[in-house]
Structure prediction request, 574 residues.
Amino acid sequence: MIHEYDVVVIGGGIAGLYTALTASENAKVAVISKVHVTRSHSVAAQGGIAASLGNEEEDHWEWHMYDTVKGSDFLADQHAVEVLAQEAPNAIYTLEHMGVPFSRNAQGKIEQRRFGGHTRNFGEAPIKRACYASDRTGRAIMDTLYDRCLQKGVVFHNEVFIQHLLFALNSCCGAAGYDLATTEPQVFHAKAVVLATGGCGKIYKTTSNGFASTGDGFALALDALLSLEDMEFVQFHPTGIYGLGILISEAARAEGGVLRNGLGERFMERYAPTLKDLAPRDIVSRAVLNEIGEGKGVEGKDYVYLDLRELGRERLNQKLPEITSLIKTYLGIDPSETQVPVAPTCHYMMGGIPTDAEGHVLADKSGTVLPGLYAAGECACVSVHGANRLGCNSLIDLVVFGRRTGLSIFNEIKARLVHPLPVQAESLVLDKINSLLESHGTERTAGLREALQCLMTEECSVFRNGKTLEDALGQVHQLKKRLLNVGLTNKSRVFNYELQEALELGNMLRVAEVIVYSALQRQESRGAHFRSDYPQRNDEEWLKHTFVNETPTGLKETYKPVAAGRFAPEKRRY
Ligand SMILES: Cc1cc2nc3c(=O)[nH]c(=O)nc-3n(C[C@H](O)[C@H](O)[C@H](O)COP(=O)(O)OP(=O)(O)OC[C@H]3O[C@@H](n4cnc5c(N)ncnc54)[C@H](O)[C@@H]3O)c2cc1C
Prediction:
């Protein structure tokens, strides 16, 4: 089936919905999502969205900018961070006017709380900068944007899985995939295509990410011969529920929770004397694993405690109802009485598809724009997060750059030509599906996926080194070979999740290969990328972005200098 639109947005998280809403002012827009839109991972965002409103104490966008640049370990492009920090307050007011039910303080203003790495006066002390709707901030924003999109006539194609981007005359002119319910090919013809497909936390065994975060958008970009930028920087959040990875938001520490090792010590005081438990995530995650490595995990095991008892039942229910309920459901304990076992969990991809600050996808490191293709949200790399993202800076990134991407389309769409669809669009989709359904291969998707997840967790997580990365790269190649021999036990064409998972695994393996490869090349430690064989940051050689693309002979890397700005690199002390 062929669908005609002006704009097709692949992904219905906050980035996709915001882009769609903005572009819908003068274009016919469709949003495509492999899960029902309102189940996109953005709904799981808990703690908040950062903006220097100054509702609780003095704040300035320049302070927000400084914290973001320092948090990024000076790898972020400062012109992009400037846009983010400067536009953040208005972005929040716009959300408020749309109807997002933010929590309020006693003056009736949007309430704000502390969050990791956000400080007053260039690093002096933690500041209250995170706006929030209880601990269901993502849900509140998603529901509001979804309603607005429906009002504007945005069309939703739920449970459609996109497998290909379509190009004509070097311009993106659509996308193709299939309907998960029927396996029928679905071809979307458009003047502009937006990638808003989120992250790929599912390539790790322990992750806070939802099942849909399999990096499909990254693979679509690789297919289009584009590079992925800075993929070695994978964020691990320090407080996932032990053994499950389910997130306990930093808001828990912002509200007064503290981390304790097996000896009951508040160990973050030793690692970050000023910000303590509210230091950036890369630093806290390494600290947790250091404690565990020194045998100071709880009962010598590989977890520590998050102690929320000080907060008391009433405050927990008022400020953190969602995570209190998650803890009760999954651990059967009451956090007002019992400490919560936690360990780092894979959380966020700092890198992604290179874009400019207007959402255009860049075809190369010199900044050539690929006509017709845009990207926003976690799958994009603008780059505002550099080597480590601060908490609450993703949601504001989605809103600020989602809007800017929508505005670019708004301004450019009328002048864009309609390019014809490539004739083989439907057969591209069907051939792949049929070959999987008809394959007699003996490998099974679930086994291969688990092997990948264990491999990435063991050899390419918080700590890495040349030896483990070399090994991981070899093993990813092996897994890619084994995937060629995959067969499905379920041959149905109705909601065949085994088929979908096989396609997703192909994407996950390609993204994992880029992550490991990028990490292997970068011989320094910066932000979330810590090489135990190169433990120092090396600005002389490595103040540059990694670009990796697929070639017929394997992956190739090039580098692009970081755009300098008002803040010169300094040592990160917290
Ligand atoms: C548990 C959790 C809590 C978080 N809390 C916060 C927080 O408090 N503050 C903060 O700033 N950040 C937070 N983050 C990070 C932030 O929520 C995410 O980075 C962000 O929501 C990603 O949004 P997105 O719009 O880019 O993509 P997502 O919301 O991940 O949506 C991706 C969309 O793409 C679609 N899609 C993907 N592949 C395909 C395909 N092949 N075909 C069709 N559709 C496809 C999916 O169906 C989905 O609609 C949190 C993350 C997690 C996991």
Remarks:
- DSSP finds 16 helices and 24 strands in the chain.
